[in-house]
């Protein structure tokens, strides 16, 4: 569904991405984890068509990304800057639907349905600044959902909320992505999170970023904040990802499964 | 707190008036040059029943309102265009930097030559002078729009014009409104200045000149007082509108402080 091949990007003479290749199958939730400043966001912005990469290719459903594709949505880390403070939650969610050619009423209905999915049906008429950080990020997620993208991109979506809210949002994303069968690329620097949420974890190296490892996550479909994190498989995988993020080399036992 | 603030303001004004009255009463200032404060206030009150003054005030108000409306209609789109197109802005910038420091009152003689109609003259002068704060505020506000806010809409496939109108314009609106408020104040100054310099049939400026000619210092200063009061009132009215419309902006600015 998503094919990133040999993606290279430089800012001036500073190379950020050094031949990154990632594939995601239909409905897969792929986590990209890497050290801070390794070019994860540049990767996401290239996929979203927000920047034109220096080299390489991004295909979504076989179509090369040349301008901004209309079948993807992005959830940014900084919800307070990404939501529009002059609009209510419902209007924030409904706004992108103008691109879908829906009339006012149907935009409104779709927005309400999406807000309901993220548990914010009662907060539709609130303004973002009247909400907690977790609620605001739910609105951002609802906005992406309502757009019905075939590819969802998330850039450190839980990076600005507290631990409890973070867990709730992780479960929310797992639920809605599975429900809609959306292919999702989630960028994070949090090792735990990448293993907990992902169907696969891609580890990037320090800048300039290359793919250090592509690890399948064998934790089953349904996950639980307490039970899943206690599983041996989870603990082992987390340790492996941690080692790789710190620049270690892959452990053969984990790679065997791949 | 709001109450205490108003109370202090009132106390300040009352104190000033009382002090001015006392200075007048001691005979320190000859009241042929400057009438006593009570005389001026009485003159100002008299004006409210003066049909001639009321007609003049209405004429000034019309010129002010039309001028400001036209200013907004011209300056906001101009500011948006310049703010959205940096190359054009860079090209026009030297011209703006040259014209802006010229005291606007200095263009009134030119306007007198260009316009035969007195209303047109005043409106034109207002548009010239009051456009600057709006244009400048709009340019800077557009430059400061959060890039992530724009990028969000862009990521949903919206084009540059949509991003300008749906994100940049609303984000910049509180600053544009401040520019309009400054422009409203400038417009009062310019309308009355134009009336004083260009003469004409009606306007508060004309009334002031005539009162001065008739040696009615009380009426002259009374009329001036009303002009000042109008400036204060229009400013507060616009502040109230801004607070109401841009509550989201105040809340945000408050959180950032």
Summed up:
The complex is a heterodimer of chains A (258) and B (257). Chain A contains ten helices and ten strands. With 258 residues, chain A is of the alpha/beta class.
Explain what the structure shows.
The complex is a heterodimer of chains A (258) and B (257). Chain A has ten helices and ten strands. Chain A has helices at 40-47, 79-82, 89-94, 104-117, 133-146, 163-180, 191-197, 227-230, 232-245, 252-257, and strands at 2-11, 14-24, 29-33, 55-60, 63-64, 72-75, 151-155, 183-188, 200-204, 211-216. In chain A, strand 1 (2-11) and strand 2 form a beta hairpin. Chain A is globular and about 55 Å long. In chain A, 44% of the residues are buried. The model of chain A has no long low-confidence stretch (mean pLDDT 87). Chain B has eleven helices and no strands. Chain B is globular and about 75 Å long. The mean pLDDT of chain B is 91. Chains A and B meet through strand 6 of A and helix 7, helix 8 and helix 11 of B.
Show the helix and strand layout.
The complex is a heterodimer of chains A (258) and B (257).
Chain A (H helix, E strand, L loop, with lengths): L1 E10 L2 E11 L4 E5 L6 H8 L7 E6 L2 E2 L7 E4 L3 H4 L6 H6 L9 H14 L15 H14 L4 E5 L7 H18 L2 E6 L2 H7 L2 E5 L6 E6 L10 H4 L1 H14 L6 H6 L1
Helix pairs in contact in A: 4-5, 5-6, 7-9
Chain B lengths: L1 H24 L11 H11 L3 H34 L1 H14 L8 H7 L3 H26 L3 H9 L4 H39 L5 H10 L3 H29 L1 H10 L1
Helix pairs in contact in B: 2-10, 3-4, 3-6, 3-8, 3-9, 5-6, 6-8, 7-8, 8-9, 8-10, 9-10
| Number of extended strands of chain B | 0
Main β-sheet description of chain A: 6 strands, mixed
Sheet/helix structural class of chain B = mainly alpha
Distance between the termini of chain A: 20 Å
Distance between the termini of chain B: 20 Å
Annotated CATH architecture of the largest domain in chain A = 3-Layer(aba) Sandwich
The protein's oligomeric status is heterodimer
Number of alpha- plus pi-helical segments of chain B: 11
Could you name the CATH class of the largest domain in chain A? Alpha Beta
User: If classified by CATH, what would the architecture of chain B be?
Assistant: Orthogonal Bundle
**What is the H level of CATH, i.e. the homologous superfamily of the largest domain in chain A?**
P-loop containing nucleotide triphosphate hydrolases
Number of domains of chain B: 1
The share of residues in helices of chain A is: 25-40%
Please outline the major beta sheet of chain B. none
CATH superfamily of chain B: MetI-like
């Amino acid at each position: 569904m998503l094919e990133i091949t040999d993606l290279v990007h430089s800012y001036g003479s500073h190379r950020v991405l050094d031949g990154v290749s990632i594939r995601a199958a239909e409905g897969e939730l792929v986590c990209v984890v890497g050290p801070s400043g390794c070019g994860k966001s540049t990767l996401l912005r290239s996929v979203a068509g927000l920047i034109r990469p220096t080299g390489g290719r991004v295909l979504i459903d076989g179509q090369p990304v040349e301008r901004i594709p209309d079948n993807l949505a992005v959830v940014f880390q900084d919800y307070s800057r990404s939501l529009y403070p002059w609009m209510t939650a419902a209007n924030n969610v409904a706004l992108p639907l103008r691109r879908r050619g829906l009339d006012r009423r149907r935009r409104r209905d779709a927005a309400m349905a999406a807000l309901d999915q993220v548990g914010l049906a009662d907060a539709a008429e609130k303004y973002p600044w009247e909400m907690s950080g977790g609620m605001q990020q739910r609105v951002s997620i609802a906005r992406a959902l309502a757009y019905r993208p075939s590819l969802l991109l998330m850039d450190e979506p839980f990076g600005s909320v507290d631990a409890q809210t973070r867990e709730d949002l992780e479960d929310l994303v797992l639920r809605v992505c599975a429900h809609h069968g959306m292919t999702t690329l989630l960028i994070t620097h949090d090792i735990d999170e990448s293993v907990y949420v992902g169907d696969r974890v891609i580890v990037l190296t320090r800048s300039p970023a290359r793919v250090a490892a592509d690890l399948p996550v064998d934790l089953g479909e349904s996950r639980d904040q307490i039970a899943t994190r206690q599983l041996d498989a989870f603990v082992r995988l987390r340790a492996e990802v941690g080692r790789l993020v710190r620049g270690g080399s892959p452990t053969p036992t984990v790679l065997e499964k791949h | 707190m709001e109450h205490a603030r108003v109370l202090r303001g009132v106390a300040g004004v009352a104190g000033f008036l009382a002090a001015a009255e006392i200075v007048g009463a001691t005979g320190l200032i000859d009241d042929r040059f400057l009438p006593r404060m009570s005389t001026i206030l009485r003159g100002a009150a008299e004006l409210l029943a003066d049909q001639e003054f009321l007609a003049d005030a209405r004429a000034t108000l019309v010129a002010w309102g039309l001028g400001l409306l036209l200013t907004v209609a011209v300056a906001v789109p101009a500011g948006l265009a310049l703010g959205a197109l940096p190359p054009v802005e860079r090209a026009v910038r030297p011209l703006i930097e040259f014209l802006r420091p010229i005291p606007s009152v200095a263009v009134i003689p030119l306007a007198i030559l260009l316009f035969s109609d007195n209303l047109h003259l005043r409106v034109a002068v207002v548009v010239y002078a009051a456009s600057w704060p709006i244009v400048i505020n709009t340019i800077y506000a557009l430059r400061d729009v959060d890039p992530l806010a724009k990028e969000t809409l862009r990521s949903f496939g919206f084009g540059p014009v949509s991003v300008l109108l749906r994100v940049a314009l609303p984000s910049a609106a509180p600053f544009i409104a401040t520019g309009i408020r400054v422009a409203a104040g400038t417009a009062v100054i310019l309308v009355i200045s134009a009336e004083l310099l260009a003469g004409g049939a009606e306007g508060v400026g004309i009334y002031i000149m005539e009162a001065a000619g008739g040696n009615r210092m009380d009426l002259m200063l009374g009329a001036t007082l009303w002009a000042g009061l109008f400036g204060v009132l229009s400013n507060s009215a616009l502040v109230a509108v801004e607070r109401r419309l841009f509550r989201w902006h105040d809340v945000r600015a408050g959180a950032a402080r």
